[in-house]
Structures are given as C-alpha cells and as structure tokens.
Design a protein that fits this description.
The complex is a heterodimer.
Chain A lengths: L4 E4 L4 E5 L2 E5 L6 E4 L1 H9 L1 E5 H9 L7 H17 L3 E4 L15
Antiparallel strand pairs in A: 1-5, 1-6, 2-3, 3-4
Chain B lengths: L10 E7 L2 E7 L2 H10 L4 E2 L6 E7 L12 E5 L2 E6 L2 E6 L4 E6 L3 H19 L2 E10 L2 E6 L6 H6 L6 E4 L2 E7 L2 E5 L15 E12 L4 E4 L2 H11 E2 L5 H17 L2 E6 L11
Parallel strand pairs in B: 2-4, 4-8, 10-14, 14-17
Antiparallel strand pairs in B: 1-2, 1-3, 5-6, 6-7, 7-8, 9-10, 9-11, 9-12, 9-16, 12-13, 13-14, 15-17
Helix pairs in contact in B: 4-5
The chains are: A alpha+beta, B alpha+beta.
C-alpha cells in the first residue's frame, strides 16, 4: 500500500484554545474548528511522518479503533483538509518548515 | 499662445475617524458639501492628514455596478474595487485615488476598507457591533443583521453615549483596546458621537424572553468575534494577523452573551 505524507500548510493561521484547534484559511478567510482526531492529525502533520505511523502512534493509542479502519478514516480526513488547502498531502516526504506545535504566531 | 492645460482648483476636507485623519481632495464643491453633511462631527476643513485621497468623479457608473468588493495588494499598492468604485492606496506614500460617481456610498465603502487595513496592522479591527460609553467605559454589542444592534442602541438611557449602532471601531492601545465613535450607521441612521473610551466588555447579542448575561467559552467567543469582523482583503499575511488579533482580544476583554427581551431594563445589566 502506498504511504501518504501530510504537512501543515504554513500559509494558514492556526491556534489552539482550550483544546480546540482553530484554523483560518489565508486564501478565503474561512474558519475551521478541528475535532479531536483532526487536531491530532494536524499537530502530527510534519511532512516526514507517514499517515500510517501517525494513525498507529497517535490515533490508535488515543482512541479504541481498529487500525485499518482508523487509517481509512484518517486518509479521508487528510484529503478533505487538503481540499481546503489546510494540509499538503503527498506520496513522498514533504520538506517544508512547519511550527512544532502546529500553531502559527 | 493657446494654453493647453488649465489648473483646476482642488478643494479638500479632512475626515477623522478613530483618530485617523484622511484628507479628501475633489474639484466638485457640491460633492464635498455632501461629504461635509454626511460626516458631520468627523470633518474639519484644515489640518494635517495621515492619508490623502484624490477623488475623480465620473459621470456614468461602471460597467458592472453590482460587482462584489475586491481588495488586493500588489507591490505595496492596494487596489480596491466594487461595482460602484475603483480606488488605489499606496500606504508608503500615504496617498491614493478614488474614481466614483458623485454619491456618498462609494467613498464610505472606501473609508471602511482603508480603516480595516490600517487597524489590522495595529491589532485592531472594525466590528459588526453597536457600541456605547457608560461611566467612562465602552461596551460592544456584536451580532449579525437582525441580532438587535439597532434595538439595543435605541433602548439606551440618556446617560449612555452611542458610538455607533452598526460598525464599531476598535483600536489596540497599550495593554487594552479603545472604542471610537464612527459615522458608519445602521438602521438608526444616526452618526455616533466622535469620542472614545477603553473597551470594558464585548456582548454577543441574542433575543430572548428575559434580560440576562451568560458566560461564553473562549472558543465560542473567538469564533463569534471572527464571524463579526469586517475584513475584505485577499491577503494571507493580513488574514493571519487579524486571526491572531481576535485571540488576543478575547484573551484581554471579557466576552459574554447578552440575551434581551427587548426592553429598556436590559441597560440595568450594563455598566
């Protein structure tokens, strides 16, 4: 199976407040509030950790979910976030500078 | 020898909103008289200005009078356009021009946009909210159309000074925020007083059966604030700036939900 890599788009504004991750698209000013799974995905999207590693290490350890199903859901979520230009997605590791905690300042 | 060019006298006035003086130059004295009337209380005919606009009045409207507003920046120059106007503003030179027909609405839109751009860089903003001063403190009442901005303004008792019933001007100052009066009116069609005071609270308006104030979680407060900000620019850096400004505001200013009946007793809860 092809590995997928995800990286936060450095051109969006992101901030966590009381555990809620809020992201605003710099392109059209649309505001997104991420749920817990999407927040984990966002914070882990460093461009060089593959999606299946994120699911295994961060999502399956947090939620009681079956790994194959969790990976499928995470891929759907990642593609949706990518469609809004919040995440970049690639079959190769993505070299880009992203904030460590997922928040822009 | 025939004179090929003629020197046309330019007249001007200065419109000061939020402490920011903007000079408007035009050749048409009737147009300036209309602005003098429209912005009464915010106008003076002399004095230094931070920004200067030359207004070029056209006889006919543009090709698509219903086109939406677009604000973009290229090489340090802002381009502002809507169906009824074209404008450019170069902050470094503090100058710009506006092309429109002789009406008060186009220039009003340009002024709102320019002020949002200035405020955004300074951590402030224009907000869809009524605002008023009581006991030396400013209170903001935010909400979309029909939320009750005009109603709460109309219910204000005599000791309250109205800053606006539609668009609040919020400037960051030291560790807090200051609200200024604006000439940007809503249904009340009454200009706000040209005064200012430190912002003491932001209320998110809701209509209900009784008057009460409820706490709002920071996330909801921030989302509501962002939803009510006026911002037009297609500019990623400025979007990021205004996003973080909203978080900073919520961090420093109490935000609550104000449900009101509506009757004048709601003001017993304010101030």
């Amino acid at each position: 199976m092809t590995k997928l890599y995800v990286a936060r788009n450095p051109r969006v504004a992101a901030r966590s407040l009381d555990g809620e991750m809020m992201i605003m698209s710099g392109r059209d000013s649309t505001l997104f509030t991420l749920n817990k799974t999407a927040t984990i995905l966002w914070q882990s999207a460093d461009g060089h950790t593959s999606l299946d590693e994120i699911v295994e290490q961060r999502i399956c350890s947090e939620f009681a979910v079956e790994p194959a199903m969790a990976l499928q859901d995470a891929e759907t979520l990642a593609r949706e976030l990518a469609s809004h230009e919040i995440l970049n997605i690639s079959e190769q590791p993505i070299a880009q500078k992203t904030p460590v905690d997922g928040e822009s300042r | 020898m025939t004179q090929l060019t003629t020197e046309t006298e330019r007249l001007s006035l200065v419109i000061t909103i939020g402490g920011m003086p903007v000079r408007i130059n035009a050749v048409d004295s009737n147009f300036l008289a209309m602005l003098q009337d429209r912005y009464a209380g915010y106008v003076n005919s002399s004095g230094e200005a931070e920004i200067e606009f030359d207004v070029d009045l056209t006889a006919s409207p543009f090709a698509d009078p219903d086109a939406d507003v677009r604000v973009s920046q290229h090489n340090g120059r802002w381009a502002l356009e809507r169906g009824d106007f074209r404008a450019e503003w170069e902050p470094a030179r503090r100058r710009g021009w506006i092309r429109q027909t002789a009406n008060p609405y186009s220039i009003d839109a340009v002024l709102r946009i320019v002020h949002t751009l200035i405020l955004a860089r300074q951590g402030g903003f224009l907000l869809h909210s009524a605002s008023a001063i009581r006991n030396g403190k400013a209170f903001l009442f935010a909400g979309v159309s029909e939320a009750g901005k005009t109603t709460i303004s109309r219910l204000a008792p005599p000791d309250v000074t109205l800053l606006t019933d539609e668009i609040s001007y919020v400037r960051k100052q030291n560790q807090g925020y200051v609200a200024y009066g604006t000439p940007f009116t809503g249904e009340l069609a009454k200009l706000g007083e040209n005064v200012s005071a430190p912002v003491s609270a932001l209320y998110l308006l809701a209509k209900g059966a009784e008057n009460r104030i409820d706490a709002v979680a920071p996330g909801e407060a921030t989302r509501s604030l962002l939803a009510n900000l006026l911002f037009f620019a297609e500019d990623e850096d400025l979007v990021q700036t205004i996003f973080h400004s909203a978080f900073e505001f919520v961090n420093r200013v109490p935000v609550s939900r104000l449900t009101f009946a509506p009757d004048a007793r709601v003001w017993e809860l304010i101030g």
